Amino acid sequence: MHKIIDPAILYFGTPVVLVSTLNEDGSPNLAPMSSAWWLRYSCMLGFDASSKTPANLLRTGECVLNLASADMVDKVDRLALLTGTNPPPPHKNRWGYRYEPDKFGTAGLTPIASERVAPPRVLECPVQLEAVLDDARPFGEKDPKYAGLNAPLAIEVRVIRVHVDERLIAAGYPNRIDPTKWQPLIMNFRQFFGLGNILHPSRLSEFPEEAFKPRERLKTGTTGTA
Ligand SMILES: Cc1cc2nc3c(=O)[nH]c(=O)nc-3n(C[C@H](O)[C@H](O)[C@H](O)COP(=O)(O)O)c2cc1C
After folding, report:
1. Burial 89-121 (b: 16+ CB within 10 A, else e)
2. Which residues form the Flavin reductase like domain (predicted)?
3. Distance (Å) from CA 199 to ligand 1 centroid
């Protein structure tokens, strides 16, 4: 039997992304987040508007989306309850956050140069997506339940360079990621999880992945959004 409940959060399980941006003084900031999803080469990021990452992203227009693998969980957890905002906003103070200017050092992660954007990539992350800002808007602000609170931001970024650990590349397909080799770290409500194995053959995967490429779509006249 289903029950009607009123949960405080609806975080049903999404991958953990470490977003790197540059601070005003040129030093890097790094923030764990998981309100992220992708369509085509664009990604929507959901951020508390008081965080340093959206401020950096809106000011500089650039970031790197570093995808954490399940085996990075201890390093990711070291980034929790930290902010690059100094001083932290009142709600974060109350929740036990502290200002940390050296997130890479605190987590034991290594910054390496990106190719097309200024913020660094995270060496230890098997997937590193260099991205630029396309759009940002308040999110969920029409919900009367949250009246009086600052709205979070939905930030749309566009991936312009994809770096992938070669061990994740599918045999015989130089531009495909093998989903059986990619083991993302998942935040499910506020706990860390990994993925299990393939559950069932997928009918959606019966046509070639390359059908999604824009050139292929134009060639075949399949221009609608899928
Ligand atoms: C695994 C994980 C996932 C998180 N997901 C989000 C998220 O999706 N959106 C968000 O605003 N904060 C999220 N947080 C909290 C941010 O990391 C936190 O607000 C942090 O202070 C942001 O850093 P910054 O202020 O330096 O940008 C998450 C934290 C952890 C540990």
Report:
1. eeebeeeebeebeebbeebebebeebeebbbbb
2. 12-168
3. 30
- Flag whether 155 is in a domain: yes
Is residue 103, in this structure, part of any structural domain at all?
A: yes
Is the pLDDT at 226 greater than 80, yes or no? no
pLDDT of 225 reads 60
Chain centroid to CA 154: 12
* ipTM reported for the complex surpasses 0.85: yes
C-alpha angle 36-60-57 in degrees, rounded to nearest 5: 20
Q: What is the rounded radius of gyration, in angstroms, for the C-alpha atoms of the chain? A: 19
pLDDT at 217 (0 to 100): 84
Cis peptide before 87 (omega within 30 of 0): yes
Atom of ligand 1 nearest to the CA of 32: 17
- 3 in a domain, yes or no? no
